[in-house]
Amino acid sequence: MPTPPADGDIREPKQENVFLFVTNLIGYTRIVFAVASLYYMPLHPRTCSLLYSISCLLDALDGAAARRLDQSTRFGAVLDMITDRCTTTCLLVFLASAFPRWSIIFQVLISLDYSSHYIHMYATLAMGGGRQSHKRIDENRPWAMRLYYSNTYVLFTVCALNELFFIALYLLSFSSPTLVPSLLVDQDPTRPQTWSSPWSAGAMEMARANKIDSAVPWVLLATSSVFMLFKQYVNVVQLVEASKWLVQGDMEIRRKERADQKRTS
């Protein structure tokens, strides 16, 4: 029969370094690929799209590793959400400059994305308890939220194709005179286009002109458009639902305060 360890032999369990969890290392790698894609974004559509897509696909590997290695953490969830929001926002900012006529649409999409996720996470922390995940949706929530958050395959597919829609728009900014008429190259060599700065809007548009063929981007745009619209619908629904949840909590707090005031008076 083994003898119990003496008091002096009792050791504290080894402290884990959450920052170095495999899942979080994948998250840092996502950031590196995202930043690299931003560097190539102005003039190199193929390289940028490849790096950006790798960053997005690592999101799925991140979640799978968290479940398999039992390394799901609140820090990792926040890191993942921040990376998603920031990378998408950077791409939408570029699209707003590439399609100035439609910039208000991209500005609305950025605002909706940030506000819906922020209020959803805040409501989950404030009303659902500190240990409840923002991805754990009750049965009384709308079907779109339950479908989106409860099934990892649906979540990944919708997020991936939502990003694919914006990547397709990004590629079309290099190839489609239909969306960007200024991409039509002036065929008259006696009329050179000059700008005071090679980084001006006009010079950048001319530098993007006809870099790639537009056929594949149009197919990608058509394929992913339904998923992009569904993602925006989910954003609107979770914004409304989280607002209602917070208001419900406010009403309960106010009722409790009034009841306490009546008892003390």
Automatic annotation (TrEMBL):
Keywords for this protein: Transferase
Source species, domain of life: Eukaryota
Enzyme Commission number(s) from the entry: 2.7.8.11
Main enzyme class: transferase
Protein name: Phosphatidylinositol synthase 1 (CDP-alcohol phosphatidyltransferase1)
Organism: Aspergillus melleus
